[in-house]
Amino acid sequence: MLDLLLSPLGVCWLALAALSFVLLRRPTRLYGAITLLITVLLTVFGGTPLSAWLLASLEKRHFGHPLPPAESIQALVVLGGGFSASPLEPGGFKPHSAFGRLTGALALLDRGVTTNLVLGGGESPSEPGELSADAAIRPWLEKRVDPRIRIWVLENSRTTREEAMDLARLAAAQGWRRIVLVTSAWHLPRAVAAFRHEGIEVDPAGTDFMGLASLRSPDRWSIIPNPGGLALANVWIHEVLGLLYYRIKGWI
């Protein structure tokens, strides 16, 4: 508890709580009510299981989806966002929090799901001469997969919709009819809908279960907000707004 209180978030929360107490005792009660509401919201989303429960509601939609027999799967597609190119790192790439997408895909390849691995779009080079995320990780990846596995890259896709559109074109060219789609479990509802909208038969495989994992944590309750809880709330808001935006645009 003390480490949370001494963190920047904890200090700001404590200052807001103190300010609310002062303002509520003066004629400026309206401002006190506003700062108190902000303080309470920080506690609710950062110090209770609410954020984890909301994110888990997205993760559960495709949880435990059984995969079809390997002979009916033509490719395994892992969406981007799990890593970026980094000349500072010994391996030439930097894993992100969603790196579980790639490790999950490798686990499925070890089970002999398919011999085609498709990497979704990654971050674009920020400076001339820098490698893309996919180009940076490819040497490391080729040493860790069976030589029979062919690696494809959706080079020009930077969003989920672009990945779906580019994969649809690649699947048509290669005669692929069914794929396994690997991405963070909380991202699967939007990703699966986007890929199916492009006419692709998709079997989802979720990784990076942040919400469900957080619900299993013994430290789910705290008066002082936890940055991790607020991070879960941020992911949930991003995905809910993303689903809404995709529906409005007619992309799902």
Beta strand % = 5-15%
**How would you sum up the global shape?**
elongated
Q: What is the count of helical runs?
A: 10
Tell me the Rg in angstroms.
22 Å
> What is the oligomeric state here?
single chain
The top-level CATH class of the largest domain is Alpha Beta
Largest sheet: spatial strand order: 5-4-1-6-7
Mean pLDDT: 91
Q: Structural class, from secondary structure content?
A: alpha/beta
User: Which second-level CATH architecture of the largest domain applies?
Assistant: 3-Layer(aba) Sandwich
Number of domains: 2
The unreliable regions are: none
Corresponding CATH superfamily of the largest domain? HUPs
List keywords for this structure.
252 residues; alpha/beta; Rossmann fold; 5-stranded parallel beta sheet; two-stranded antiparallel sheet; 10 helices; 7 strands; 13% strand; elongated
Give an overview of the whole structure.
The protein has 252 residues and is α/β, with parallel strands linked by helices. It folds into two domains: 2-47 and 222-249, no CATH class; 66-211, HUPs (Rossmann fold). It is built from ten helices and seven strands. It has helices at residues 2-5, 8-24, 29-47, 50-59, 100-110, 133-142, 160-174, 188-197, 210-215, 227-249, and strands at residues 75-78, 83-85, 93-95, 116-119, 150-153, 178-184, 201-207. α6 links the parallel β4 (116-119) and β5 (150-153). α2 (8-24) runs antiparallel to α3 (29-47), α3 (29-47) crosses α10 (227-249) and α7 packs across α8 (188-197). It is elongated, with a radius of gyration of 22 Å. The model has no long low-confidence stretch (mean pLDDT 91).
